[in-house]
Design a protein that fits this description.
single chain; 250 residues; alpha/beta; Rossmann fold; 7-stranded parallel β-sheet; 9 helices; 7 strands; globular; binds NADPH dihydro-nicotinamide-adenine-dinucleotide phosphate
Length: 250
């Protein structure tokens, strides 16, 4: 199905691994030109560059630590210079840790808030001059922010905050025809899961599988499906929304 995305310009944060990578490769396959970023060198970065070259299109995989405001500024400068505009921004990069709340250090709190919330704010604010009518901003949220989850108070606080940010920006920029939405994800199986010791991975899959209506975890490609919808004109009357991509998890 042609979604009419050919030649559109996108910035996706955190595309080297996991869900972000699934989003980047799906957009590229749909004909979107993509700039994405990562924070540390790894074989995943080179393999993504290679994969995007094979796909074709104008893609750039750039080093930018989003917890550093000046590097967010440089990333947006690259978008301006290379693309001149953005039709889609996906705030995907995220950080998490599993820490009893009483032991949560201010450093860990700041790292998670800076990555998940402040970086999204800086990326959106910096992208505003590049976003024209019909453009779409997607913030990657989490179902966990609605239900709460022990040891992740800091993480869920940031994901809940993204929803407030999204709804307010949808109202503030509706007259410019810029749309803002959240994708609230359930448990998505990524390379991080594959890298876990088998017994831990099996226990985790078993536990979360049982909580979903569909009886399984999601995939990055299934998150990308919702991104393609929100990137396209099929969703032109959808803004300020939280769309659940969670297999019916409870
Ligand atoms: P991963 O940890 O697998 O990947 C995170 C990506 O973000 C990597 O590409 C990483 O780059 C990049 N990144 C992290 N911090 C920074 C930073 N400071 N600057 C630049 N890039 C950064 O995460 P997932 O794919 O699992 O998650 C993606 C998003 O989906 C996150 O927002 C997460 O909260 C959300 N989510 C995920 C769920 C899941 O089940 N996986 C469930 C609900 C929500 P690098 O390779 O350099 O580290």
């Amino acid at each position: 199905m042609d979604l009419g995305l050919h030649g559109r310009k996108a910035l996706v944060t955190g595309g080297s691994r996991g869900i972000g990578r699934g989003i980047v490769t799906a957009l590229a396959a749909a004909g979107v030109d993509v700039i994405t970023c990562y924070q540390r060198e790894s074989p995943a970065v080179e393999s993504l560059r290679h994969e995007l070259k094979e796909t074709g299109g104008q893609h750039h995989v750039l080093l930018a630590d989003l917890t550093r405001p000046e590097q967010v500024g440089e990333l947006l400068d690259e978008c301006r210079q290379r693309f001149g505009r953005l039709d889609l921004v996906v705030n995907n990069a995220g950080a998490i840790s599993h820490v009893p709340y009483g032991e949560l250090s201010i450093q860990d709190w700041n790292r998670v808030v800076d990555t998940n919330l402040t970086a999204a704010h800086l990326v959106i604010q910096g992208a505003l001059p590049l976003l024209g009518p019909g453009s779409s901003v997607i913030n990657i949220g989490s179902k966990s922010s609605e239900v709460g989850i022990p040891l992740r108070a800091h993480y869920t606080a940031t994901k809940a905050a993204l929803r407030g940010l999204t709804r307010s920006l949808a109202k503030e920029f509706g007259d410019r025809e810029i749309r803002f939405n959240v994708l609230a994800l359930g448990v998505i199986a990524t390379d991080a899961l594959d890298e876990m010791p088998a017994d831990r991975r099996d226990a985790l899959v078993q536990r979360y599988r049982g909580k979903t209506a569909l009886g399984r975890l999601g995939t990055p490609a299934e998150v990308a499906g919702a991104v393609l919808f929100l990137a396209s004109d099929l969703s032109r009357y959808v803004t300020g929304a939280t769309i659940h991509v969670d297999g019916g998890i409870s």
